[in-house]
Design goal:
By secondary structure, the protein is α+β, with helices and mostly antiparallel strands. It has 9 helices and 24 strands. The strands form 6 sheets. Strands 5-6-4-14-15-16-13-17 form an 8-stranded mixed sheet, sandwiched between helices. It has a 4-stranded antiparallel sheet with strand order 9-10-11-24, with no helix packed on it. The chain has a 4-stranded mixed sheet with strand order 12-19-18-20, with no helix packed on it.
Amino acid sequence: MIGAGFAGLSTALHLAEAGVSVVVLESHEPGWGGSGRNGGQVIPGIKYDPSEILAKFGPVAGEALIGFVGSTADLVFDLIAKHGMDVPHRRAGWIQGAHTPAMVETVKRRSAEWQARGVDAQFLDHDAAASLLGTDRYLAGWVDRRAGGVQPLAYARGLAKAALAAGAAIHGQSKVVSLTRSGATWTVRTTQGATVTAPRVVVATNGYTGDLIPKLRQTVIRPNSFIVATQPLSDNVAGTILPEGQVVSDTRQLLLYFRKDHQNRLLMGGRGPFREPKDAADWAHLERVVGKMYPQLKGVPFDFRWCGRVALTRDFLPHLHEPEPGLLRAAERHGQGDGGLHRHRRQGPPALPGRADHAAAPARAERTLRLGDHRLVPPHRWRHEGQGGLSAGSGPSRRRHGSLRRSARHRPPARCRSPSRIRRSTGTARHWRYPAASRTGPTESSR
C-alpha cells in the first residue's frame, strides 16, 4: 500500500482484518496530506443525483452505485464506534445552501429524490435554511441527516492504530521511488534503499500523486483546499451559528464549506491558489467570507490557516485503474467530503484478495490509464505565525520554527510491526513517527 491517507489506511485495515498481509509505505506520516488537512465533512453521495446516476449507468450498475455512495458516511461513523477511536465527531447532518434561484429548484429536486429512497432528507425554504444556518445568505437549501463532521487528522490516526492492531505494518518517512515487476511479483523501493516485494500494489496517493507511474498525475486534478478557523467562540455567539451542528456546503461551482468544530471554532473552507500558499494573504478571501456571512464575527481573530490537496476526477466519479497486472490505483475524490475514500476500501477493488465480483465495487474500472479522467491540520494543533514562522500545540507550550509535537489526545500507536518481507539494503524503512518539519513558510502550518 503506497500512501497512508484515508484511502491507504482504510484499505490496509480492511485487508488486514480479512487476513491479508499488508505493508503501508508513506512519504511523511499517516494523515499528512489532504486526509489530515481538510474541512472534516463526511457527506454521503456524489455530484450526481440518483436519477442522473441511473441515466448514466442503467438500473443494475446505477442502483449499485447509488447504494454504494449512499452508505459512505455510515462506514466512517461505524468505524469510529467499532474501534473506539479517539476522534472528535458529530453526526447532525449536512445542509447544502442554494445561492441562485436555479439552484433552489436543483436542491428541491435533489431532496425529493433522496426522500423517495427513504433517506431522512428535507427541503428547506429560505426561512428554514436561515434558522439552521444562522445566516440569511442562501435562498433555500436541503438537509441530509446521514452526514456529519469529524476531526480528520485524529481520524486518520485512528485508522492507523486500528490497522496496526489488525496486523498491518505502517512505515512513515519511507517515500517510494520505484516500482518494478518481475513475473507476478512487484518490488517497491524506498528512498532509504529498503524494498518490499508483493504480488499486488495499491497506489493511494490521490492529491499527492507524483510520477511513480507514468502519466498517472494527469488522470486527476489536484487543487488545494484552503481552510481558516476562528478562535473558540463564546457559547452565546456560537449558539447563533449552526445551532444544531450541521456541516454545510453550497451550490457554487467553487463552493464554500463550513462547520463548527468540537472547540466552538468556525471553520470556513474553499478553493485558493493552485500553487502552495506563500503567506496569510492566500487565505484572506475566506476570512472576508466569514464576516459577510456572519457579521457578528467581524473582528474575531483567526487562529489557524491550513490547506491540503485533493484529487478530483474530471467526471466526478470514483475510478479504479489497473495499468499493469497486480498494480491498482484508485482515484476517489469527487467533491463530497471524506466518506467515499473509506466505503470503497471496505468493498475492496475486485483484483484484491476477498473480492471476486465487479458488481460489488461499482467504480469505473479500467485496465489502462486514460488521460482526463480536511484536523484537519487541526486548528488546535497548528498556528500560522506570519511569514515563515510556526508554532505547534496549544496553550503556553507552543514551540516555533515548524517542529512537530505530539498531542496528548492523539498519539501515534505505541508500536509498528516490522514487515517480514522488507529486505534491508543501504537503508531501512522507518517506522512512522512525528518528524521535524522543515521551516519553509506557511505551507508547513498545514502539516
